[in-house]
Automatic annotation (TrEMBL):
Cited Gene3D superfamilies: Dipeptide-binding Protein, Domain 1, Dipeptide-binding Protein, Domain 3, Periplasmic binding protein-like II
Statement: the UniProt record of this protein carries the keyword Signal: yes
Tree of life domain: Bacteria
PANTHER family given in the database record: D,D-DIPEPTIDE-BINDING PERIPLASMIC PROTEIN DDPA-RELATED, PERIPLASMIC BINDING COMPONENT OF ABC TRANSPORTER
Full protein name: Glutathione ABC transporter substrate-binding protein
Length: 531
């Protein structure tokens, strides 16, 4: 799919969305719009979830986006995970202890096998973290584990993580999707494919093999992916035979599919569609407050956004409250900084207030009293497209002319990772629900590009705060360092910290046990269909 340029003088917000629906190139639209198919033939043992975006890859070590993670998390597991209260609980590791400040020891479950029959053990854990930290693989998840010097096999079901320095959030980081455990046989086959000239992840993408309660069966990119029950799952079988992710880009079609019973679950649900689902007979709305951040970002390496005053001016010209009320129907919380208030060490800071006159003054100080021309990128998410148009409209008040460009999801991630954009709209889920994951991958200079820092921000003072906060074991010192980092990020303004989102999904009332965690990941283990 090529870039779509939009002019607000020609297209209003609703027309923009309609045009993009008609021109969307991600597959599944035709199947999703066939309302006459209903749920006939789907069978009670198959659950269908209609979602907007496909996975980029099923190699969990080489992706860091939510659409991919929502499919991967059903197939792969980690040593640890988070419960509904964001507390760390066991998954593939049963217990753990600190040997000293830089050594952690984990006892592994002994009753687990991979989908290909390979045993889960300490060697498998070591193979996975060796791969994550292999610079030739280039995992964007490596940032979560760069404090790990090596993983040591103690015995068949015991591993030690030997760290380069004390790192208090290690347990939280091990709950991240990047720490998911792939079959060592698949890892070996992937390395062999690399030696034969293929790209890293090419084998695993086509053969995703984990220990999860669902196994990969087939995938037609852009259309649908089918996962089936793991009958040998260590924690008991799921109550259904298969789970199908159907890619349905258009929100209205997803709602229609729920209404007709063609889909059992739909996500995401647009805020203006929430009332329709709530009023729908036989269906319900599912909500979850997030620990993530929706933002409008700047490429700080490109003029004029290389000047903090310009970034501050643009930030102050955007009315966040109006965007949340008008586009999100009031769902979500206005963000004043990068961390959601519920995150430990989130600072209570006022942020930059909406002030058009001050914005004009800052632009003049920066030498742009007559404004400038720029572009804002988004993917084909309806709310993000509406935010782009709202931003385009708001910035005319300070003389900034904005062209909106919409990219297909995969191309969007790739090109923003390469720094080809001016402004862009994106979100960060903060899968670990801690300050380190909410700040370091997004804003540290070592993470520029696809790893997370698409702002291309490089600031020695900020790097220092984040580096020291990672390594200190003094809680008071860590709290102060994170407060300093957040204050610095408001000064630098690499992004407009827009909103801490409320996730919205719809499901038929016959679906029980479905929920999303605070990172927006589907929890499908306990889902079942009732009559």
């Amino acid at each position: 799919m090529g870039v779509i340029s939009l002019n607000k003088k020609i297209l209003g917000v609703s027309a923009l969305s309609t045009m993009l629906v008609l021109s969307a190139c991600a597959g599944g639209g035709d199947e999703g719009s066939d309302a006459e198919n209903s749920s006939e033939g789907s069978g009670s043992d198959e659950i269908i979830l209609a979602t907007m975006s496909d996975a980029v890859s099923m190699d969990v070590h080489l992706t860091n986006d939510i659409p991919s993670a929502n499919m991967q998390v059903q197939v792969y597991e980690k040593l640890l995970t988070l419960d509904e209260n964001n507390e760390v609980i066991p998954q593939l590791a049963e217990e753990w202890e600190t040997v000293d400040d830089v050594t952690w020891e984990f006892k592994l479950r002994e009753d687990v096998t991979f989908h290909d029959g390979e045993p889960f053990n300490a060697e498998a854990v070591k193979a996975n973290f060796d791969r994550i930290l292999d610079e030739e693989i280039g995992s964007p998840r490596a940032v979560q584990y760069e404090m790990v010097d090596n993983v040591e096999v103690v015995d068949e079901y015991t591993v030690r993580f030997n760290l380069k320095y004390p790192f208090a959030p290690l347990l939280a980081n091990l709950t991240n999707m990047g720490g998911s455990i792939i079959s060592p046989a698949a890892i070996e086959a992937d390395y062999e494919a690399i030696e034969n000239g293929d790209e890293a992840g090419s084998y695993i993408n086509e053969n995703p093999i984990g220990t999860g309660f669902l196994e990969f069966e087939n995938w037609t990119p852009g259309e649908e992916m089918t996962l089936v029950k793991n009958e040998d799952y260590w924690d008991g079988e799921v109550a259904y035979d298969s789970f199908v992710f159907q890619i349905v880009p258009e929100g209205g079609t997803r709602v229609a599919n729920l209404e007709t019973g063609y889909a059992h679950i739909i996500d995401p649900l647009a805020p203006n569609e929430a009332a329709r689902v709530e009023q729908m007979e036989g269906a319900s709305l599912a909500t979850q407050d997030s620990v993530g951040l929706n933002y409008i970002g700047f490429n700080t390496e490109k003029e004029p956004f290389d000047d903090p005053k310009v970034r501050q001016a643009v930030s102050m010209a955007i009315n966040k409250e109006e965007i949340i009320e008008g586009i999100y129907d009031g769902y979500g919380e206005v963000a004043t900084g990068p961390l959601a208030p519920v995150i430990p060490n989130a600072a209570d800071l006022p942020g930059l207030e909406y002030d058009v006159e001050e914005a004009k003054s800052l632009l003049a100080e920066a030498g742009f009293e007559d404004g400038f021309d720029t572009t804002i990128w988004t993917n084909d998410n309806p709310q993000r497209m509406d935010i782009a148009v709202a931003t385009q409209d708001a910035l005319t008040e300070i003389g900034v002319n904005v062209e909106v460009e919409v990219l297909e999801w995969g191309a969007y991630l790739e090109q923003t990772g390469e720094g080809l954009h001016d402004m862009f709209i994106l979100g960060w889920s903060n899968q670990n629900a801690n300050a380190d994951t909410g700040l370091y991958p997004l804003f540290h200079s070592s993470q520029i590009g696809a790893a997370g820092n698409r702002f291309m921000i490089q600031d020695e003072e900020l790097d220092g705060f984040l580096d020291e906060a990672r390594q200190t074991t003094d809680e008071a010192e860590q709290e102060q360092l994170y407060a300093d980092a957040q204050e610095r990020l408001i000064e630098l303004s690499p992004a407009i910290y827009l909103q801490h989102q409320t996730y919205l999904a719809g499901h038929l009332d016959e679906v029980e046990g479905f929920w999303m965690n605070a990172s927006g990941l589907y929890q499908l283990k306990d889902v079942e269909l009732t009559e």
